[in-house]
Design a protein that fits this description.
Largest sheet: 7 strands, parallel
Structural class: alpha/beta
Strand content: 15-25%
Shape: elongated
Radius of gyration: 21 Å
Number of strands: 13
Helix content: 25-40%
């Protein structure tokens, strides 16, 4: 099959981009795969960051670029047996034999009832989402199209190294994302850790934030760094996948807070839509202490393979208990590692091939 893949955020180097390019990697083993993108350096940076193998994948002109006219876009799309499209809220019209929409978050702004979108949806073969959370909000709005969940693949790079007294968070720093200035709530977590230090709840522990950001966001990032001064808080900036695994393997506790303080009934897109970094941390034996919302609830079973929290007090109390009770930490850590195996590359590969090749 001749397959085209499009991700409008390919230069963001986030989890969604890793997901889409892993699809390219999977399908290129038995199909002719192209990625629609105009800047090869973005793809090279993504390969460096995520250690992907796209040697069999072609990078071709982006037919979904605003520079390409509608008729030319239609003409080029007709050459493909299948197109896989990561939607940012838009629905493409193509003449590919099959069209698959991938949704990474609740699309609250899309209007499925417009005649234009109804026509476009009639050409969609299937919609697949990264979590049940994402699916639950989109399935009702985009009814009439086959919908399913394909969880992101998480390759675990576990190394037997001595654990250190580290609380870890991994996530992109973006000035704005889904209309929020602090989507990952990194400022919130810094404040929580500082409070724990000030209240003497913490002794000899440090907080590491492994973050990536673009050059244009560097000035705003400096404000985040300044907020941590004087405390045992360290930043790992723009590290490769291998470098991240070094710190995953050393950390004991993992924090995640996306969605805290937000009205998630009104704005479900403000929650974490899945949480690849949470699974990666669990695979390395970190105990996740994550917010009780969004896709995090699909990964973590409270008090079994991690902990879910609803308030700052809960976050602090659970963290303090894990710091003091090594037997509890060891028990939950072992179960967290087992749980991470449920999101394997092999399972992802099987689902993607079945989805695309199914006649």
């Amino acid at each position: 099959m001749k397959i085209g893949i499009y991700d409008p955020y390919l230069d963001d180097l986030g989890g969604g981009e890793k997901y889409m390019m892993t699809i390219a990697q999977v399908l290129s083993g038995s199909h002719d795969v192209s990625v629609f993108w105009d800047n090869n350096s973005d793809v090279n940076e993504l390969l460096k960051r995520f250690s992907l193998d796209l040697t069999k994948v072609k990078i071709v002109n982006n037919i979904f670029s605003g520079k390409i006219g509608f008729l030319e876009k239609i003409k080029q799309s007709s050459k493909y047996d299948a197109i896989i499209f990561l939607s940012d809220g838009s629905i493409p019209f193509t003449l590919a034999k099959k069209l698959f929409l991938h949704l990474q978050q609740p699309l609250v702004h899309i209007n499925p009832n417009s005649l234009k979108n109804k026509i476009k949806l009639s050409r969609v073969t299937a919609i697949f989402c990264n979590s049940k959370f994402t699916l639950s909000f989109n399935e009702k709005r985009l009814s009439g199209v086959k919908s399913l969940v394909v969880y992101p693949p998480v390759t675990i790079n576990k190394k037997e190294v001595k654990k250190e007294k580290i609380v870890l968070h991994v996530g992109r720093f973006r000035v704005r994302n889904v209309d929020l200035s602090d989507y990952k709530k990194q400022n919130v977590m810094i404040d929580v850790f500082k409070q724990m230090v000030d209240k003497k709840m913490i002794k000899d522990w440090k907080f590491i934030l492994a973050v990536s950001f673009k050059k244009e966001d560097e000035e705003r990032f400096s404000l985040l760094r300044n907020a941590a001064k004087g405390y045992p808080i360290t930043f790992f900036v723009n590290k490769s996948n291998d470098e991240l695994w070094d710190i995953y393997n050393k950390a004991k506790i993992y924090w995640h807070a996306s969605g805290f303080g937000e009205d998630l009934e009104k704005h479900p897109e403000y929650a974490e839509h899945f949480g690849i970094s949470t699974v990666e941390a669990m695979g390395a034996g970190c105990v996740p202490v994550v917010i009780n919302s969004g896709g995090q609830r699909e990964i973590v079973t409270d008090k079994e393979n991690g902990f879910l929290w609803n308030s700052i007090d809960e976050l602090q109390d659970i963290t303090e208990k894990l710091m003091q009770d090594n037997a509890l930490w060891s028990k939950i850590s072992a179960k967290a590692k087992t749980r991470s195996n449920d999101f394997s590359y092999d399972q992802f590969r099987k689902q993607i091939l079945q989805l695309v090749e199914n006649k």
